[in-house]
Design goal:
Growth Hormone, Chain: A, 78% helix, transmembrane helix, transmembrane
Length: 418
């Protein structure tokens, strides 16, 4: 297991940008951004394949969303224990290569007339499992690569680049779907994971083998990570809030193509363009996160931006025909700004406060406890749209977003600066 000496406490020339001075961070940034672009294309293109090829129902769309997120609940905790035993960079490369193979299987099966809805579900589950390992390893690798004193900068830059990918990918995916179809877009998606593997594989900084194996059985090792999370007051609040927020966001993922593409009859290109507004909000939020954290402190940044954007999120359930369609990107833009700023603050808190030998299990525990709600959110969104209508589903999403703020509005956190 890595010890505190395995993660550098300081980095040279802390006033100089990581982007200019740190070759390993540059490669990690490139690989992570390309991988995030691929993940966004998967999120957008897989439902469109189901709609266009199999005319999937709203409930089947919810099942597809759930299939891509259920691996978090199943594989998340074991992934954290295994990652704590391994070098993290090989895990990142291997999971990118696996996602390349899985996504490439869809256009291959389609070319031979063998593609089925069951294969889409299977790819969603397996690619989601690979993403669980990638995310846990990525969050645990950054403190080693840049040092703990550069984590706020590193997280902010990664969030900015990822949000830039989120901003560009919906529009690009929409254009790709119109040009080559949703199946062809998935082929481009597969290649993006191959490019990410090449970039991360080129990092030359030597990563030490974990010095000690975690003690006890796998179950005991997992329990250590869970106890750490539940014994930390801030992490407990983040878990409670994150569960509700994940329910809301995954329900929204299931509902938004039904609302915008099926009900409002938007073209794939316009659909992608509207979703780009949400991604742009996340990008701008991550750009301002460092200055917000400096002004408010980490604790207040966890809740203030999220509260500030609630009035704008209220616009989304009123989305309709004509100019009313613009209410969706406005609300989604504001929502993404608040969540992106909050993410930089809570990621930095988690990585700075956790002992290095527990990073993998802590990150995995946080992912499982919060993202474990995502499959239920996908099913909830699909079921509400199927039996209650898309408007009722959108109001349910808004209610969950508001409820997610309550756990982080405790007096202790509101009074704290850091």
């Amino acid at each position: 297991m890595t010890t505190s000496s395995s993660i550098p406490a300081t980095a040279p020339a802390p006033t100089r940008s990581l982007l200019r001075t740190h070759r390993g961070f540059q490669l990690l940034l490139t690989g992570d951004t390309v991988s995030q672009f691929g993940s966004q294309v998967t999120t957008l293109a897989l439902p469109l394949v189901a709609l266009s090829t199999f005319h999937a129902s709203a409930f089947q769309m919810g099942l597809l969303t759930a299939a891509s997120t259920v691996p978090v609940a199943i594989a998340g905790l074991p992934a954290g224990a295994w990652v704590d035993r391994m070098r993290r960079r090989p895990v990142l490369v291997a999971t990118d290569l696996l996602r390349f193979a899985l996504l490439a299987s869809i256009p291959l099966a389609y070319a031979f007339g063998e593609l089925t809805l069951a294969q889409l579900y299977a790819v969603a589950v397996l690619a989601g499992t690979a993403t669980v390992f990638f995310d846990v390893a990525h969050l645990s690798y950054l403190p080693f690569l840049v040092g703990r004193d550069r984590l706020t900068e590193g997280n902010a830059v990664l969030q900015s680049a990822n949000r830039c990918a989120y901003f560009s990918s919906p529009a690009i995916c929409g254009w790709l779907v119109q040009a080559v179809g949703p199946v062809g877009a998935l082929l481009v998606d597969a290649v993006s994971f191959l490019a990410s593997a090449g970039s991360i594989g080129a990092i030359r900084r030597s990563e030490p083998q974990p010095e000690h194996e975690p003690r006890g059985t796998l179950r005991q090792q997992i329990a250590v990570g869970l106890r750490y999370v539940f014994h930390d007051a801030v992490l407990r609040m983040l878990v409670s809030s994150g569960v509700l927020l994940c329910l809301a966001t995954t329900a929204l993922l299931a509902v938004q193509p039904i609302l915008l593409v099926r009900d409002l009859k938007l073209s794939p290109g316009l659909y992608g363009l509207l979703l780009a507004g949400q991604s742009l909000g996340g990008f701008l939020g991550s750009l301002t996160a460092r200055s917000v954290i400096r002004r408010l402190g980490t604790a207040r940044t966890i809740w203030v931006p999220s509260v500030a954007v609630v009035p704008f999120v209220l616009l989304m359930p009123f989305t309709g025909h004509g100019w009313l369609v613009l209410l969706y990107p406005v609300g989604a833009f504001a929502f993404a700004v608040g969540i992106s700023i909050r993410n930089v603050a809570q990621l930095t808190y988690r990585q700075n406060s956790c002992p290095p030998e527990l990073l993998g299990r802590m990150n995995a525990s946080m992912r499982v406890l919060t993202w474990g709600a995502m499959p239920l959110g996908g099913l909830l969104g699909g079921a509400l749209a199927q039996w209650g209508g898309t408007r009722a589903a959108m109001w349910a999403v808004f209610a969950l977003i508001v409820l997610s703020l309550l756990p982080v509005l405790t007096p202790a956190l509101r009074a704290a600066r850091d």
